[in-house]
């Protein structure tokens, strides 16, 4: 049966959610927006639409991206479709006070103007239910520090694609230490020339080799943080 024959509104809830996973995978933005609206009209809570339809669908995309089955262009399309659905849900989630995964400030470091990897991480993080504040490219230490404080972020993500700009990540982390705020934030770093050893050497919490790993790592650290808070 061709996709054109599927009338979304005629599917039952389970079929529709399954179809949304497929449509996200295929990057079909219009279909995702329509399906989100259908579920809301059927009385679904915005948080359930987010987690069961969108986040669950993007988790499949993330896993296949990590395993080399999907590539950057396809993931960008999927993330764009996700964004369409999120645009409908965001105001509703704010109203209902839905539980938040956490908040991330992300940006490429000073002297570096590469942003495809960073954009992908931002989109995948949003796809996992995180709130993301993207500072763009070429960020000086002051800009990062102002943003994480102003946004009350949980996570700081820094990206670099040049070996010459990599060391700037340490400048930012050292400045956080000087201000006594390093432990208030989870610091994740990424970019082609980096590796785990470098991440450890500069004092980051983790190096993430791609967007799928970034999401998994962020979830792990946030969960750990919640557990520590609960234990106190």
From TrEMBL:
Keywords: Cobalt, Metal-binding. It holds the Pfam family B12-binding. CDD domains: corrinoid_protein_B12-BD. Residues 101-232 form the B12-binding domain. InterPro entries: Cbl-bd_cap (IPR003759), Cobalamin-bd (IPR006158), Cobalamin-bd_sf (IPR036724), Met_Synthase/Corrinoid (IPR050554), Meth_synthase_dom (IPR036594). Belongs to the methylamine corrinoid protein family. Residues 7-101 form the B12-binding N-terminal domain. This is Cobalamin-binding protein. It comes from Mesobaculum littorinae.
């Amino acid at each position: 049966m061709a996709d054109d024959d599927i009338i979304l509104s005629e599917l039952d809830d389970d079929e529709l959610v399954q179809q949304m996973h497929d449509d996200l995978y295929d990057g079909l933005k219009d279909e995702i927006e329509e399906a989100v609206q259908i579920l809301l009209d059927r009385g679904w809570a915005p948080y359930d639409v987010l987690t069961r339809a969108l986040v669950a669908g993007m988790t499949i995309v993330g896993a296949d991206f990590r395993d080399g089955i999907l590539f950057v262009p396809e993931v960008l399309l999927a993330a764009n479709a996700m964004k369409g659905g999120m645009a409908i849900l965001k105001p509703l989630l704010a109203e209902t006070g839905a539980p938040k995964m956490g908040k991330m400030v992300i940006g490429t470091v000073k002297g570096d103007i590469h942003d495809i990897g960073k954009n992908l991480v931002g989109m995948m993080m949003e796809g996992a239910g995180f709130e993301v504040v993207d500072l763009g490219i070429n960020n000086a230490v002051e800009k990062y520090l102002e943003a994480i404080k102003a946004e009350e972020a949980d996570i700081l993500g820094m990206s670099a694609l040049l070996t010459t700009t990599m060391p700037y990540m340490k400048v930012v982390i050292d400045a956080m230490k000087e201000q006594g705020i390093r432990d208030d934030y989870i610091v994740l770093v990424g970019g082609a020339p980096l590796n785990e050893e470098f991440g450890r050497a500069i004092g980051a919490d983790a190096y993430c080799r791609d967007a799928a790993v970034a999401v998994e790592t962020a979830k792990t650290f946030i969960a750990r943080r919640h557990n520590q808070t609960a234990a106190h």
